[in-house]
From TrEMBL:
This is Acyl-coenzyme A thioesterase 13. Keywords: Acetylation, Cytoplasm, Cytoskeleton, Hydrolase, Lipid metabolism, Mitochondrion, Nucleus. Pfam families: 4HBT (PF03061). GO terms for cellular component: cytosol; mitochondrion; nucleus; spindle. Residues 54-128 form the Thioesterase domain. GO terms for molecular function: fatty acyl-CoA hydrolase activity. Belongs to the thioesterase PaaI family. One of its GO terms (biological process) is lipid metabolic process. It is found in: Cytoplasm, Cytoskeleton, Spindle; Cytoplasm, Cytosol; Mitochondrion; Nucleus.
Length: 145
Protein backbone atom coordinates (compact mmCIF):
# COMPACT_ATOMS: atom_id res chain seq x y z
CA UNK A 1 0.00 0.00 0.00
CA UNK A 2 3.04 2.29 0.11
CA UNK A 3 2.56 5.39 -1.96
CA UNK A 4 3.64 9.01 -1.74
CA UNK A 5 -0.10 9.83 -1.55
CA UNK A 6 -0.99 7.34 1.18
CA UNK A 7 -0.69 9.64 4.20
CA UNK A 8 -2.68 12.43 2.56
CA UNK A 9 -5.47 10.10 1.43
CA UNK A 10 -5.67 8.43 4.85
CA UNK A 11 -5.92 11.90 6.44
CA UNK A 12 -8.82 12.79 4.14
CA UNK A 13 -10.71 9.66 5.18
CA UNK A 14 -9.90 10.28 8.85
CA UNK A 15 -11.47 13.74 8.54
CA UNK A 16 -14.75 12.09 7.48
CA UNK A 17 -15.08 10.60 10.96
CA UNK A 18 -16.06 14.04 12.27
CA UNK A 19 -17.57 15.40 9.05
CA UNK A 20 -20.97 16.95 8.87
CA UNK A 21 -23.21 16.56 5.83
CA UNK A 22 -22.78 14.08 3.01
CA UNK A 23 -19.12 13.26 3.62
CA UNK A 24 -20.27 11.59 6.84
CA UNK A 25 -21.30 8.66 4.58
CA UNK A 26 -17.59 7.90 4.14
CA UNK A 27 -16.78 7.82 7.87
CA UNK A 28 -16.73 4.02 7.80
CA UNK A 29 -14.34 3.73 4.85
CA UNK A 30 -11.09 1.87 5.40
CA UNK A 31 -8.30 2.57 2.93
CA UNK A 32 -7.04 -0.64 1.30
CA UNK A 33 -4.64 0.77 -1.28
CA UNK A 34 -3.45 4.01 -2.80
CA UNK A 35 -1.30 4.58 -5.87
CA UNK A 36 -1.00 7.30 -8.50
CA UNK A 37 -4.59 8.11 -9.52
CA UNK A 38 -6.04 5.06 -7.78
CA UNK A 39 -7.77 4.55 -4.43
CA UNK A 40 -9.44 1.42 -3.09
CA UNK A 41 -11.49 1.43 0.11
CA UNK A 42 -13.87 -0.89 1.88
CA UNK A 43 -16.74 -0.27 4.24
CA UNK A 44 -19.42 -2.19 6.05
CA UNK A 45 -23.05 -1.74 5.05
CA UNK A 46 -24.82 -0.51 8.19
CA UNK A 47 -28.47 0.14 8.98
CA UNK A 48 -27.96 3.91 8.45
CA UNK A 49 -27.05 3.31 4.79
CA UNK A 50 -30.16 1.33 3.82
CA UNK A 51 -33.17 2.17 1.68
CA UNK A 52 -36.71 1.14 2.77
CA UNK A 53 -36.43 -2.37 1.22
CA UNK A 54 -33.34 -2.96 3.39
CA UNK A 55 -30.44 -2.80 0.92
CA UNK A 56 -27.66 -0.26 0.39
CA UNK A 57 -29.31 2.98 -0.75
CA UNK A 58 -28.46 4.02 -4.32
CA UNK A 59 -27.93 7.63 -3.20
CA UNK A 60 -25.41 6.42 -0.65
CA UNK A 61 -23.64 4.39 -3.34
CA UNK A 62 -23.48 7.46 -5.60
CA UNK A 63 -22.15 9.61 -2.77
CA UNK A 64 -19.46 7.05 -1.95
CA UNK A 65 -18.46 6.84 -5.62
CA UNK A 66 -18.23 10.66 -5.73
CA UNK A 67 -16.01 10.69 -2.64
CA UNK A 68 -13.71 7.83 -3.66
CA UNK A 69 -13.23 8.99 -7.26
CA UNK A 70 -12.44 12.46 -5.91
CA UNK A 71 -9.80 11.05 -3.57
CA UNK A 72 -8.34 9.11 -6.52
CA UNK A 73 -7.98 12.48 -8.23
CA UNK A 74 -6.32 13.84 -5.08
CA UNK A 75 -3.77 11.01 -5.42
CA UNK A 76 -2.24 12.68 -8.49
CA UNK A 77 0.31 15.45 -8.99
CA UNK A 78 -2.58 17.91 -9.42
CA UNK A 79 -3.96 17.02 -5.95
CA UNK A 80 -7.09 19.07 -6.62
CA UNK A 81 -10.64 17.74 -6.09
CA UNK A 82 -12.24 19.67 -8.94
CA UNK A 83 -16.03 20.03 -9.18
CA UNK A 84 -18.46 17.46 -10.51
CA UNK A 85 -19.70 17.80 -14.09
CA UNK A 86 -21.53 14.50 -14.20
CA UNK A 87 -21.82 11.28 -12.27
CA UNK A 88 -23.30 8.20 -13.91
CA UNK A 89 -23.94 5.14 -11.76
CA UNK A 90 -25.26 1.81 -13.02
CA UNK A 91 -26.66 -0.41 -10.26
CA UNK A 92 -26.25 -4.13 -10.93
CA UNK A 93 -26.91 -5.93 -7.64
CA UNK A 94 -27.75 -5.29 -3.98
CA UNK A 95 -25.64 -5.12 -0.85
CA UNK A 96 -27.24 -6.01 2.47
CA UNK A 97 -26.62 -4.97 6.08
CA UNK A 98 -23.58 -6.64 7.57
CA UNK A 99 -21.89 -7.10 4.19
CA UNK A 100 -18.69 -5.31 3.26
CA UNK A 101 -18.37 -3.43 -0.02
CA UNK A 102 -15.18 -2.46 -1.84
CA UNK A 103 -15.01 0.74 -3.90
CA UNK A 104 -12.18 0.71 -6.45
CA UNK A 105 -11.68 4.11 -8.13
CA UNK A 106 -9.20 5.33 -10.69
CA UNK A 107 -8.44 8.37 -12.79
CA UNK A 108 -8.70 7.50 -16.48
CA UNK A 109 -7.43 10.84 -17.76
CA UNK A 110 -6.77 14.24 -16.24
CA UNK A 111 -6.33 17.17 -18.58
CA UNK A 112 -6.05 20.90 -18.09
CA UNK A 113 -9.78 21.51 -17.51
CA UNK A 114 -11.41 18.08 -17.11
CA UNK A 115 -10.69 14.76 -15.44
CA UNK A 116 -12.40 11.45 -16.15
CA UNK A 117 -12.67 8.87 -13.41
CA UNK A 118 -14.38 5.53 -12.93
CA UNK A 119 -15.27 3.33 -10.00
CA UNK A 120 -16.51 -0.18 -9.44
CA UNK A 121 -18.32 -1.22 -6.28
CA UNK A 122 -18.02 -4.88 -5.31
CA UNK A 123 -19.53 -7.02 -2.60
CA UNK A 124 -16.44 -8.29 -0.80
CA UNK A 125 -17.68 -11.77 0.16
CA UNK A 126 -18.14 -12.94 -3.42
CA UNK A 127 -16.55 -10.15 -5.50
CA UNK A 128 -19.95 -9.51 -7.13
CA UNK A 129 -20.06 -6.21 -9.02
CA UNK A 130 -22.91 -4.23 -7.49
CA UNK A 131 -22.36 -0.87 -9.23
CA UNK A 132 -20.13 0.73 -11.81
CA UNK A 133 -19.72 4.46 -12.35
CA UNK A 134 -18.14 7.21 -14.39
CA UNK A 135 -17.45 10.61 -12.87
CA UNK A 136 -16.29 13.68 -14.77
CA UNK A 137 -14.68 16.51 -12.80
CA UNK A 138 -13.88 20.05 -13.97
CA UNK A 139 -11.13 22.43 -12.90
CA UNK A 140 -12.66 25.88 -13.33
CA UNK A 141 -10.36 28.78 -14.04
CA UNK A 142 -9.78 30.85 -10.92
CA UNK A 143 -11.65 34.13 -10.88
CA UNK A 144 -9.69 37.36 -10.83
CA UNK A 145 -10.70 40.05 -8.33
Amino acid sequence: MASKYLAAIKQIYKSYETAKGFCKFASGCRVLSVSEGHVKVEMDVTEELLNPPGTLHGGCTATLVDIVTTTALMATERAHPGVSVDLIVSYLAAAHPGETIVIDASVLRAGRTLAYTRADVFRKKDNLLIATAQHTKAFPASKQK
